[in-house]
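dumping this here so i dont lose it
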């Protein structure tokens, strides 16, 4: 079957079976083309609360599919590929954070949405990279325990010196492995390029950026910018999407290693199989966990 035929069949099945496809922008172009909505983690959460279809296929990673189920429990929610987890979300669990909270009883626990539903039940509010600063600023408290991404937490803390932050040592293994030497090399090779970076990168990389933001933030900046060349410091799928969208501009990956194997686990055939009801994983959450996690996600949507 040719790629176009698979896409046509997905579009037909979507209509026939009342399916909505949500796709994170780290997915491949052939998947984004058949999606009803594409965006960053925050955009996907907002969309998940609004979906009217009977079934939702989440092309992304597990915590994103769980967010859809948390917000739309009456829907059948399918994770496009059962092996697509987020290593950062698995780094800390409910028991560990419950113990840490005992050391910091007067701190508000701000959880990056890249966490398990179970862990969210012991947190106060969720954030994503696009709304973390806004939410941390708005919070009534000036003491924040930020989990699990140390890099994102450090970036936010620098911008809010009036607040006290406690950070733990978690993070994205894809973004965190890139050091400043990659930026120096890329800037030497492309001296006229602006450097756009995701805040999951280490501080020494983020400090060298012309723009810091979420995946859709980076894409919007590049689309609107007068500049013609950009070094992209996030998962390399964003380079591909921007190249396709803005053919008159040039986009360079910060590193050829900026690839998230979990985001890349989903194929177009996986999406087809989900539409047929023969693939992916149906997300189930017990009601207590769902309601405990929903508190943090509702607060994120309200404040963000
Ligand atoms: P955003 O979609 O919020 O930019 O986060 C990127 C990411 O790594 C998602 O797992
Ligand atoms: Fe998780 Fe990083 Fe992959 Fe995003 S890019 S899904 S944070 S491992």
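and the seq i came up w/
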């Amino acid at each position: 079957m040719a790629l176009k035929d698979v896409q046509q069949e997905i579009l037909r099945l979507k209509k026939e079976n009342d399916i909505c496809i949500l796709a994170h922008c780290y997915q491949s172009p052939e998947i984004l083309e058949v999606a009803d909505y594409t965006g960053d983690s925050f955009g996907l959460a907002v969309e998940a609360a609004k979906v009217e279809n009977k079934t939702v296929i989440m092309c992304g990673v597990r915590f994103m599919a769980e967010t859809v189920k948390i917000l739309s429990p009456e829907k059948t929610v399918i994770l496009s590929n059962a092996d697509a987890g987020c290593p950062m979300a698995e780094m800390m669990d409910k028991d560990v954070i419950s113990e840490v909270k005992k050391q910091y009883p007067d701190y508000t626990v701000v959880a990056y949405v890249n966490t398990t539903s179970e862990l969210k039940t012991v947190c106060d509010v969720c954030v994503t990279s696009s709304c973390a600063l806004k939410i941390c600023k708005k919070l009534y408290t000036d003491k924040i325990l930020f989990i699990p991404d140390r890099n994102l937490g450090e970036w936010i803390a620098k911008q809010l010196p009036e607040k006290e932050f406690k950070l733990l040592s978690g993070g994205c293994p894809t973004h965190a492995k890139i050091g400043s030497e990659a930026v120096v090399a890329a800037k030497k090779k492309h001296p006229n390029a602006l450097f756009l970076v995701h805040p999951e990168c280490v501080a020494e990389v983020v400090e060298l950026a012309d723009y810091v933001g979420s995946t859709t933030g980076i894409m919007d900046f590049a689309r609107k910018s007068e500049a013609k060349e950009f070094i992209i410091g996030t998962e390399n799928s964003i380079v591909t999407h921007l190249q396709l969208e803005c053919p008159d501009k040039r986009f360079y990956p910060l590193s050829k290693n900026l690839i998230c194997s979990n985001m890349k686990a989903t194929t177009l055939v996986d999406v087809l199989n989900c539409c047929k009801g023969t693939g992916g994983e149906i997300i189930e959450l017990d009601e207590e966990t769902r309601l405990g996690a929903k508190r943090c996600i509702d607060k994120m949507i309200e404040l963000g």
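The pocket of 1,3-dihydroxyacetonephosphate (ligand 1) is lined by residues 40-41, 86, 114, 128-130, 172, 200, 214-215 (CB under 6 Å).
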